[in-house]
């Protein structure tokens, strides 16, 4: 049975006993992350307006979210978040994002990624350097999210389109539990918060991020990143430059966290990029075979390999590029058999009898 996830306090996180996993394990404590991150933010001129913490019942997996005082967009404040564990179930990770003032949910760009680090070797020192690197580039990440939000406000989605996107996020990418998918569906009918246009992509995006606030701390950051990567990819949002992190063997970037029951979005993209065009085999001749009781069979003889001249190779290469180029965007764009009927029409049940 999964451990209960609950909101907690800084004092409670600091009281959790540190792990004892052997000499090769470098402890990155919740206290160390909290103290260093808040000091680094202060040194950069940011003020923490609010801090939120969640953890498992035993405190072994925890996350922190800091709402900062920077907000060029009145709807969005800058946000710094981290996740850490003492039981080796999740590596330390941190990210800069945006805090949605109206809903209390967050935006985390799928393009800038999050840095993750195993608790070994000089992990503590590299954690400091990486927190500093993200904070030094915080304005760039925040401004990118503000731009994405403005773009989403201009994109209209009727309920049919919202339902199809919900289905992809739930059934294909599996970032939503059944309960969370129901939360999104309920908001599509009656939003928890008032938006200028409830049929906009921005409203739907918020329906999902509100539901993701109930994700397990182990997958919360990655769920948010997959959502934003998916939405930005199908709408061709501009990508933010990658963050510069320490070059060490243990750093995992930009791969997403892989949950055994979740789809890895980047792996799917990579598979599409390396897909090859396979030609039909060339048949040299037909041979006949008669079995002992008189039945006659025919079978083609296929050579073990087929050679191509230079012109044929160029043609195959061109066809391969045409098939694989932007295949993810083409497969998941807004032409997914969308019916442009009104919401009132879509609610009616067709009479098949």
Core attributes:
single chain, 7-stranded antiparallel sheet, alpha+beta, globular, 12 helices, 2 domains, disordered C terminus, 9 strands, two-stranded antiparallel ribbon, 353 residues
Describe the structure.
The protein has 353 residues and is of the alpha+beta class. It has two domains: 5-268, no CATH class; 285-331, no CATH class. Helices cover 39% and strands 16% of the residues. The protein contains twelve helices and nine strands. It has helices at residues 10-14, 30-43, 123-136, 138-153, 159-172, 178-189, 201-212, 220-234, 265-273, 310-324, 327-331, 343-347, and strands at 5-8, 48-56, 61-68, 76-85, 92-100, 106-107, 115-117, 285-290, 296-301. The strands form two sheets. Strands 1, 2, 3, 4, 5, 6 and 7 form a seven-stranded antiparallel β-sheet that branches. The chain has a two-stranded antiparallel ribbon with strand order 8-9. Strand 2 and strand 3 form a beta hairpin. Helix 4 (138-153) crosses helix 7 (201-212). The protein is globular. The model is unreliable at 113-119, 243-258, 274-283, 302-306, 319-330, 336-340 and 342-353 (pLDDT under 50).
Q: TL;DR?
A:
By secondary structure, the chain is α+β, with helices and mostly antiparallel strands. It has helices spanning 10-14, 30-43, 123-136, 138-153, 159-172, 178-189, 201-212, 220-234, 265-273, 310-324, 327-331, 343-347, and strands at residues 5-8, 48-56, 61-68, 76-85, 92-100, 106-107, 115-117, 285-290, 296-301. It folds into two domains: 5-268, no CATH class; 285-331, no CATH class.
């Amino acid at each position: 049975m999964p451990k209960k996830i609950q909101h907690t306090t800084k004092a409670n996180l600091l009281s959790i006993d540190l792990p004892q996993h052997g000499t090769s394990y470098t402890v990155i404590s919740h206290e160390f992350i909290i103290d260093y991150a808040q000091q680094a933010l202060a040194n950069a001129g940011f003020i923490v307006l609010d801090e939120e913490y969640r953890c498992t019942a035993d405190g072994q997996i925890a996350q922190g979210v800091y709402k900062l005082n920077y907000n060029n967009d009145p709807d969005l404040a800058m946000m710094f978040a981290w996740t850490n564990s003492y039981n080796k179930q999740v590596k330390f990770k941190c990210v800069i994002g945006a805090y949605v003032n109206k809903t209390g949910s967050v935006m985390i760009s799928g393009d800038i990624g999050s840095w993750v680090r195993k608790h070994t070797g000089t992990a503590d020192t590299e954690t400091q350097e990486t927190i500093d690197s993200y904070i030094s580039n915080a304005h760039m990440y925040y401004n990118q999210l503000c731009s994405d939000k403005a773009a989403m406000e201009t994109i209209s989605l009727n309920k049919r389109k919202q339902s199809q996107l919900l289905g992809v996020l739930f059934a294909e990418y599996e970032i939503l539990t059944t309960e969370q998918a129901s939360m999104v569906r309920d908001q599509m009918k009656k939003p928890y918060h008032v938006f200028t246009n409830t049929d906009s992509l921005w409203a739907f995006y918020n329906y999902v991020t509100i539901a993701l606030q109930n994700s397990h701390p182990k997958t919360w950051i990655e769920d948010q990143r997959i959502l934003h990567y998916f939405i930005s990819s199908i709408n061709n949002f501009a990508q933010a430059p990658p963050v510069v992190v320490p070059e060490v063997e243990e750093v995992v970037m930009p791969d997403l966290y892989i949950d055994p029951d979740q789809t890895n979005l980047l792996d799917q993209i990579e598979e599409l990029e390396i897909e090859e065009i396979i030609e039909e085999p060339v048949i040299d001749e037909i041979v006949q075979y008669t079995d002992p009781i008189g039945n006659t069979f025919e079978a083609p003889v296929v050579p073990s390999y087929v050679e191509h001249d230079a012109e044929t190779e160029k043609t195959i290469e061109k066809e391969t590029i045409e098939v694989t180029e932007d295949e993810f965007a083409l497969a998941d764009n807004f032409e997914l058999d969308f019916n442009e009927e009104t919401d009132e029409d879509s609610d009616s049940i067709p009479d098949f009898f």
